[in-house]
Hints:
Layout: H1 3-28, H2 34-56, H3 67-93, H4 96-103, H5 106-117, H6 126-143
Amino acid sequence: MRLQTRGYxxxxxxxxxxxxxxxxxxxxxxxTHYLTGVTLAVWSGTALVGLGLLLTxxxxxxxxxxxWTVLFIVLYAVTSLGAITANYASLVHIPVVLSAPITAxxxxxxxxxxxxxxxxxxxxxxxxxxxxxxxxxxxxMLVW
Length: 144
């Protein structure tokens, strides 16, 4: 499988996996505080990934990472934790059918941050702008 095709397949698998998150979280949060849900979700995910690193031997490469790589991975982890926490908090207050479309407007933010931080490596074409606008408008229309 070509690398670009593999990237699209992984992106679709990501979307399909993320589709379950708010539904499962909403059910799980019925009887607990959202921070408890976040803690359980993050710890269990970390344990599974850690087990995968151990079983595949990929964990050995962690010691060889340069500090900039580690810094950006840690920043990613912190922002992901913030996103998970905000998502769980929203699910306590509004239904999945409203939270998910609002959350789905994140490509607009990704586009802005990519433009600001990675101008040389991320190509933002009129087609990308139009597609991002369609996603955001669609998400807004669902909750308006």
